[in-house]
Amino acid sequence: MRSKRLLPNILRVAFLCVVASFVLAPMLATALGGFKTNAEIRTNAFALPESWNFEFYAAIAADPAFWRYLGNSLIVSVATVALTLFVGAAAAYVFAQIRFFGSRMLFSYLLLGLMFPFATAILPLFIKVRDIGLLDTYWAVILPQTAFGLSLAILLFRTFFEQLPKELFEAAYIDGCGYVRFFWRFTLPLSTPILATVGVFVFVQSWNNFLLPLVVLNSREVFTWPLGMMQFRGEYVTEWNRTLAFVTLTILPAIVFFLAAQKYIVAGLTGGAVKG
After folding, report:
1. What sequence ranges are listed for the domain ABC transmembrane type-1 (predicted)?
2. CA-closest candidate to residue 248, choices 35, 56, 31, 48
3. How is residue 48 annotated by DSSP?
4. 65-86: per-residue pLDDT in tens?
5. Are 87 and 152 in contact (CB under 8 A)?
6. What tens digit of pLDDT does each residue of 84-101 get?
7. How many domains are there within the chain?
8. Among residues 37, 53, 69, which one ends one of the domains?
């Protein structure tokens, strides 16, 4: 009996190790590539460098343009997360707590956003952003990202809010607590896991977004890091070690943010899966 349980566990761990290797191997090769010569990268990308050369990492860290790209990405990503969390949580709270005519139809309509890839709307989005005068500004990236992130955010928030004890709201309502006050005083403080989960998803998606900034941003002063990476790659087209060092340093904030909120992600995704 014990051996029957042991075999599935071993297979599960082996499968997870294989999946993890496919994810970690490219990241490891990228990080190590920043210490190698171009010859070493071409011959064996996954091997340790013959000598640990910190020159490329130090040069990039000392470049003001790198910090400008990083700062622009941070502004855009944090603003997108803040707007998505606020609007998504407020809308999901209405769908979860208030029953009104057409609520199901409106909720289904909002979920249609999950069916359309971002790239399909890039041309009309560019025209609309141009018409309202937001081209080449942070808001040209922040507002569309928020709009496209709301569908998933509302879905996750609503599922989580529906599992909160109804008795809590009834007791608060008897004490004179309205919907808005209950939202701020009770719902949000109890929703830390789902707030962190949605925040991580939105942050990582915004941090890595390349297509939208490419279309709506023209000045290097407002370039996010993917566009900065494109500029950097054009300047150092033959220096793969310098390019890999740049990539490693720019993806670190997203990895750190993900690891910091990791314990909340599972709780947020499973919090609305089981009643009671």
Report:
1. 70-261
2. 31
3. P
4. 899 999 999 999 999 999 999 9
5. no
6. 999 999 999 988 888 888
7. 2
8. 53
